[in-house]
Each structure stands twice: as C-alpha cells, then as structure tokens.
Write a structure and sequence with these properties.
- This is 2-oxoglutarate-dependent dioxygenase DAO.
- Keywords: Iron, Metal-binding, Oxidoreductase.
- Belongs to the iron/ascorbate-dependent oxidoreductase family.
- 2-oxoglutarate-dependent dioxygenase essential for auxin catabolism and maintenance of auxin homeostasis in reproductive organs. Catalyzes the irreversible oxidation of indole-3-acetic acid (IAA) to the biologically inactive 2-oxoindole-3-acetic acid (OxIAA).
- It is a single chain.
- This protein is α+β, with helices and mostly antiparallel strands.
- Helices cover 31% and strands 23% of the residues.
- A hairpin with a 7-residue loop joins strand 4 and strand 5.
- The model has no long low-confidence stretch (mean pLDDT 95).
- Bound molecules: 2-oxoglutaric acid and fe (ii) ion.
- Fe (ii) ion (FE2) binds next to loops.
Length: 315
C-alpha cells in the first residue's frame, strides 16, 4: 500500500529543566511558551524532551505493556466502558494490526487497581506499581504544557486550566505487517480528546500531515514524547492551534507498542472558543458544542466519514 514517506523534524521543545513554581514568568519560560504556541499553530504537534521520565521507567512500562498484550483476547475483552474510546479496541478489518486497552480516569488509583484486577484476578502489583508513577509523571508533563499554552496567550493569570479533564491512558500494540510491507497500522485521524502525549517503544511508525497535505514520518529521539493538539483544543483556541491529522504506518518485522495519555474533557463540558481569543482579526470560528454530543457524532458512521469538528464551523 503506497510508498514510504520521508522523515521529518517537527519542533523539539525541552521541558526537562522547567519548574512551574520557580520559572513561570521568567524570560526562559516566556521563550518556551512562544515555541509551544508556534509549534501548535504551525504543525499541531511537537517533540517533547522530558528527562524527568527516566529511560528505565519507560522501558519497565513497555515491558508490562507487552505482558498485557500477551494475555488471551478474552481477558483483554473484559476492558469495557460505555465510552468506546475508553475500552479495549481491536480486531478491526480496516486496521487488523492494531489493538489497544484503556484506563479511563487513570490518575485515580482505584481505576488502575480495577483494571489490574480485571486483567489479572490473582493480582499483579508490579503492573500497578510501574504504571501509576508513569501516569503521575505524564500528568505533570501535561500540566506544564497546558500552562505554557495558557501563558502563550496571556491567559495564565486568569484561568487555571483549559477545560476540566480526566486522564485517559491508552496502551497500544501494532502487530508487524505481513511480509514487512508498508501498511496501515492506525487510520488517519485527528484526536477527539483535548490533546495527546504519545511515546513508543523503539519502533517508529507515527506520521503527521502538514497543512500542505503532505504526510511525514516522525523519527523522535529515543525516550522523547510527541504532543499533539486535539479537536477540542483547536475549538477552544478559536482555530488558532491546529489539530494535526496523524496515522500509524507499519513496516518491517517488529511489533510496535505505544502509550498515549489524553486529557479527556469531563462529561457535561461545553467546548467554546475562549473569549480573549476572539477579536476583529480572529472572528469566532466555531459555535460552542457539547463535548459528549461531539464524541457521539464523531464515532457515528456519518461523523467518521467527515471532519466532525468542521460541522461546528461558523460560516
Ligand atoms: O500509536 C501511536 O503512536 C499513535 C496513537 C494515536 O494516534 C491515538 O491513540 O490516537
Ligand atoms: Fe491519535
């Protein structure tokens, strides 16, 4: 299917040395905020360097993720949720290499405990003890990025968060393609969650589409993360931040494992453009919408066939 696209470098932003408590307001923080905003406006994504999450913790996390996917399918199918985004997903004819498990509200230790009991009724403390600190660190990183976005628009003094969210953790496996051919791992999409922090275990495969329609293969440095703007963040920013279309393409003979932490807007959230981001130069781009309705529509047959967010555009 198709041919391999070229490797591409998106902006790389280092959050390793940043402390919200000490650095917010400094010249260095200001420069970082501008970089974040420009990357989100121009590409809808950037590579994140964050050495507070140690390579060793990432390696340990991927080793338990592999254990999870080695479980028989009937066990993984126990991972259910009324929201299909937050449950086991896989066995799709159009994406046969893909499967994922999810923990909704992963920052809640009871949710993690429930997930572990469901998968390993006899217990698996090592899974819980490995994944929980990783979620905590990803939450911290996400909060740094969120504050940098708010401050980049001069809004940090007025509001604490972009919108109320819980952390959805998705663990994903992509089987190696038959014959090692270049084939679809996960269909092209924009994220329906506020944003995403992604990391993968060694095997590349993530591709992003730039605004000119070209697809580019990302080759992030080992142990770095990718931040991606999702549709609700694009709507909140009045269309200024770009929700980047991305996909996973598989090639070669190795399986790919990845982990995604998404801030998921809570039930009842109304997504509306932040009023300070609407002015004469930037007229209101989207009508406000109920997040749950948006998700339901995005997942419907009609919604999947189009860019669901575009239906909320004001003409
Ligand atoms: O596996 C990846 O790197 C990307 C996953 C992704 O785009 C998603 O879960 O929305
Ligand atoms: Fe995605």
């Amino acid at each position: 299917m198709g041919s391999d696209c070229l490797s591409f470098q998106i902006p790389v932003i280092d959050f390793s040395k940043v402390s919200l408590k000490h650095d917010r307001g400094s010249e260095g923080w200001h420069r970082l905020c501008i970089k974040v905003r420009e990357a989100c406006e121009n590409y809808g994504c950037f590579e994140v360097v964050y050495d507070k999450i140690l390579p060793k913790s990432q390696a340990e996390t991927f080793s338990i993720v592999k254990e999870l996917f080695a479980l028989p399918l009937e066990k993984k199918l126990r991972n259910v949720n009324s929201n299909p985004f937050h449950a086991y997903a896989g066995q799709f004819t159009q994406a046969p290499l893909y499967e994922s498990c999810a923990i909704s509200d992963a920052s809640d230790s009871d949710e993690v405990r429930n997930f572990v009991e469901l998968m390993w009724p006899d217990g698996h403390d090592h899974f819980r003890q490995t994944i929980s600190p990783m979620i905590e660190q990803l939450d911290e990183l996400n909060s740094l990025i969120e504050k940098s976005i708010l401050d980049s628009f001069g809004l940090g003094g007025k509001i604490d968060s972009i919108m109320a969210c819980k952390t959805l953790l998705r663990l994903q496996r992509y089987k190696a393609p038959p014959n090692g051919d270049y084939v679809n791992g996960l269909d092209a999409h924009t994220d329906k969650l506020l944003s995403a922090i992604l990391c993968a275990d060694q095997v590349f495969g993530l591709e992003v589409q730039t605004k000119d329609g070209q697809w580019h293969k990302l080759s992030p440095s080992p142990n770095s993360f990718i931040f991606i703007v999702g549709d609700p963040l694009m709507a909140w920013s009045n269309g200024r931040l770009h929700s980047a279309k991305h996909r996973v393409m598989m090639k070669g003979h190795e399986e790919r494992y990845s982990l995604a932490a998404f801030p998921a807007p809570v039930e009842g959230t109304v997504v509306r453009p932040q009023k300070e981001l609407v002015d004469e130069e930037h007229p209101q781009f989207y009508k406000e919408f109920d997040y749950t309705d948006f998700i339901k529509f995005s997942l419907s047959k009609d919604g999947m066939a189009i860019d669901a967010l575009a239906t909320y555009k004001l003409s």
